Structures
1.
Amino acid sequence: MRVLVTGGAGFIGSHFVRRRLAVGDDVVVLDKLTYSGNLANLEGLGCDFREGDIADAGAVSEAAEGCEAVVNFAAETHVDRSILEAGDFIRTDVYGPHVLLEWARRSGARLVHVSTDEVYGDIPEGTTSRETDALRPSSPYSASKAGGDLQVLAYVRTYGVDARVTRGANTYGSHQHPEKLIPLFVTNALDGQPLPVYGDGRQRREWLHVADHSAAIELVLHEGAAGEVYNVAGEERENLDVMRRIVEATGADPSLLRHVADRPGHDRRYALDSSKLRQLGWRPEQSFEQGLEQTVEWYRANRAWWERIKSGEYRAYYARQYADRLS
Ligand code: TYD
């Protein structure tokens, strides 16, 4: 199968590319190489790489030539950055899917749109979100992703486009940009730097290993149905539990944990019901504890990969996001 993977130089996208190359697919990657896209993630893989923006119709039709399917990982994804500045989120997460949908409409190709559990907003203890639940996004990021999801569903209904949506939990594993909780804490802990806990740290997230997430997206590509949404759940943990495990696994000093000013609008809890995906045959293989240990080992062994990222644009972002909080 010839498949276009947008955002294929990013975290989940590059894992998915590796997986598709392993089954013999012809993979084209379209990636804008923003701060979070990283060509090192695709090194030596032998895919056809095109630098470009999903919001640019010309770049999309050129890259997509001859593809039977597109899997869209391209997105601005970090909640904290969306709170600082949301414009790029609207362009990439709302206008970008529109361009991909227009291309799918013209070509008849299939589209898998990768979204997030954050579109449901936070939910009370003891409940889980189902695919049919109302979308109540809290942050500029999750609102932009919800906008993309709704366009996909509208294009299926209006034009009969062959598109489907996945909504994944918090994903972790190797090659994740160190702005996100797990790699931020692991790399800071390895460097003996403070670990900023937003608010009381009692927020809850579901954690999904990137290999299990990629397998779910692959299943939806082949076995999912047009117009359907599929939740991809993880294992629920309180943030402080995850943070303490990282301190332990890295051998860092627990006093590095610092409670700092909370994120505005911070969602307390996400949890997904993914029985629909399980009915298609999906079963996660990685336990959180084991997956986290392996992830810590990867960051320990690949210091050059993350030190390069942390030395660039990241420094300005880190100062803007954390300097006041940690002072
Ligand atoms: P994050 O990785 O940003 O993912 P999301 O906001 O999409 O869930 O954050 C995961 C959780 O960790 C979230 O509840 C916010 C919290 N967090 C901190 O406490 N400190 C931090 O420095 C970061 C980045 C996140």
2.
Amino acid sequence: MNKSVLITGASRGIGAACAEEFAKGGYNIAINYLNHEDAALSLKERLISQYGTDAVCIRADVGEARDCERLIKEAHERFGFIDVLVNNAGVSMQKLVTDTSADEWDRMIGVNLSSVFHCSKAALKYMIPEHKGVIVNIASMWGEVGASMEVAYSASKSGVIGLTKALSKEVAPSNIRVNAVSPGVVMTDMMKDFDEETVAWLKDETPLLTLGAPEDIAKAVCFLASDEARFITGQILSVNGGFVI
Ligand code: NAP
């Protein structure tokens, strides 16, 4: 039987690249999305026709605890078991901390961090009794070192790193591995608010002198999810061209 993966925020960007990489590996794919239904549906059709995998789209706002629980339940029921959970969905915001409202802070933490708690908790309900499962979280290099004007984002991603380390210790005796990939600058829609000059500066600041592609992150995620990584847990794998070392 094929293994199954649920990827949150898989309609676009890094999540969509992860879906494609897992499909190449023969996984059944549950594609979570929020706003971009057309993108999610066309990705699903492509994965089915190109790779012969089974795929399903599930709309859920991972910023809401109840949606996370429903999302996991629906994916579990559809495929029988979620072998791999990729907590990828995320939002960013560039703002001075003094201009950031309490609601904006709460939403950032809700979507980027609490979602990882809620989805992981719901998935572990099925994983722990089976004594198997893998969780890969998407952090950010700004969660490692902090970014000016991205205090809420950086804090949410630092939280993802802390959660990854603590959870990995807690569930390791149940044979469940938990790791994170921490991307550098990756050219997706998340970067579209940055002007050309800033993007060129970010490229210059990257020791490899190139920006990341969603596939670069997807390959690292698939590695951590695979049996090749059977002895790796609690780790934060930085995929950033050397930006943060
Ligand atoms: P993106 O292109 O903006 O895509 C974001 C994805 O997340 C979309 O599929 C979106 O779904 C989904 N999403 C957003 N809010 C959601 C919610 N409340 N519920 C469910 N889905 C939601 O971003 P990306 O660059 O691929 O980022 C993916 C992850 O990588 C994020 O966690 C981000 O923080 C992290 N990351 C990105 C970079 C970078 O440079 N791009 C660097 C470091 C870390 P819809 O479009 O359907 O709403």
3.
Amino acid sequence: MNILTNEFKYTEYKTSEIPEKYTEIIEEAKSQTKNAYAEYSNFRVGAAVLLKNGIIIGGNNQENAAFPSGLCAERTAVFYANSQYPDVPVKTIAIAAFTNGDFLKDPISPCGGCRQVLLETENRFGKDIEFIMYGTEKTYILSNVRSLLPFSFGKENLEK
Ligand code: THU
């Protein structure tokens, strides 16, 4: 029997100390919360996707009276980016959440379904995606998204 560990590193910033190079994408993710259609949860999530060509694509959660028919901000933004720029790798993604009149103090992290989709995008282009989870007090930055989904299912499993 073996007991194994699987660790990953990420950076925790005091939000007031985040390097300036991240300001634009974080501000875009925050701004995207305004267009969320969060009719049922009132939990507004914004995502911003920076492509290798410098274009930033935004997205937000889109809810539905038939709950499973809605979509999270991350998938809305990434699917749109991939649908319009199928050959352009994603460099960085930022997310932010707004509810009860303010952004959340602590970072939110993506749901399982979004992790699977983010991982597919990372693998598809063979390029690590930097992932920023914004909170008003602290913000996490990961250097790739595969660390969010250990023991993932991917293309390679279908090929065996
Ligand atoms: N949501 C996102 O858009 N992204 C996340 O990372 C977590 C949850 C949305 C889904 C739903 O519209 C609302 O937040 C409440 O779960």
4.
Amino acid sequence: MIWNEKMETMAAQDLKNIQSDRLKSIVKYVYDNCPAYTKKIDNHGIKPADINTIDDIKKLPFTIKEDLRDSYPFGLFSQPIKQLKEIHVSSGTTGNPTVVGYTKDDLKLWSEVMARAIACAGGVPGDMIQIAYGYGLFTGGLGFHYGALEMGLTIIPCSSGQTKRQLKIMTDLKPRILACTPSYSLYMAEEAREMGLNPRASSWEIGIFGAEPWSEAMRKEIEATWDMEATDVFGMSEIIGPGVAQECLQKNGMHIFSDVFYPEVIDLQTGKEARPGESGELVITTLTKQGIPLLRYKTRDIVSITYEKCACGRTSPRISKIKGRTDDMIIVRGINVFPSQIEHVLLSIEGTQPHYQLVVDRKTGELDELEVMVEVDEKIFSDEVKKLRALEEKIRDEIESVLGVMVKVRLVEPKTIPRSEGKAKRVVDKRTL
Ligand code: DLL
């Protein structure tokens, strides 16, 4: 079902008109209510009156993560703190954490877009959903919770972790929808087998997986393992949390709810708009948010976009799977490496598991070394050394041909690589650059 027929199937020109009206209002709103934005817009040499249609968005300055950090904790807010009904804080690796907050209307918006997302994945009112994203300061658990409430689902708010208990709950209560990170769904499958359960017999028919990168090959793996439809959900705390974009069952790009989150894709080299189908950095403007609206926020996520109508009937643009980050991308001997490229190779090779970790190191005076640790299944691990070597070589050759950089491959026993109940840690960078 389509949750909001009007907004999600609107003709292109009508959508553009709404986006134009909303952009005009939001620019004036932040200019009048947030001194940091007043300054930013003034410094950019424009006035809110210069913004009349959605195409004028290009006249606006970008907002970056550092703007949020520099104005920590509340400097980019457009509403007094007492108007905020909920605050989330994400820990960064360096410097101040990022603080975001929601007014009552923002919470309504979040519920609305998450209801759209769950419907887009195939959920209908009356379904039971097991939410195994973390609840708390992370936006995953509560975002799904609000959307499910809005939709009229029966919620099991498991949060992440306590895997055996999750599986018992699934077996006994028989929820139809599972929401968690893709890597956690595979971890749960391992535990299920250990408990003597057959994952393919599970009650889950739909999975809504996101918060971390995953590949098409990983989707196939999850779908085959659990006998379910695995869909991708995208979002980030700064914009709203989960609920920025969601795949429908065509599984051909994530519908971005562009009447409220206006997307641009910016070419990394030229800084200009990338053509549809070409990769670039996703930039989002929140068109209706009140607490902490952001203009042209640079997400650091690399995607491509298409404006073609989807067979599901929705007219919203669709973004590709996240192809990498402008920052988590690692550079090894001058070559850009995305963990997703390696994942892709591993999943195409028999016997390897989609549990892997990249370790980058640089000894003094030497070149970067990239080691790929790959788990193999029990059967392969107990094979003779000759066979293991051959498999290592095969993986190495394939990775090297994709990346164009030398790598070391180390096969490790099942369950050696640390599992995560949230986002998997794919890269360990030991270099001091
Ligand atoms: O991860 C929000 C979320 C929760 C999304 C649950 C989906 C499901 P943050 O913790 O702020 O918010 O992290 C945002 O995670 O910029 C992406 O790099 C990455 N990310 C989120 N969804 C996907 C996805 C939540 N489907 C950052 N594929 C984003 C790849 C994703 N990366």
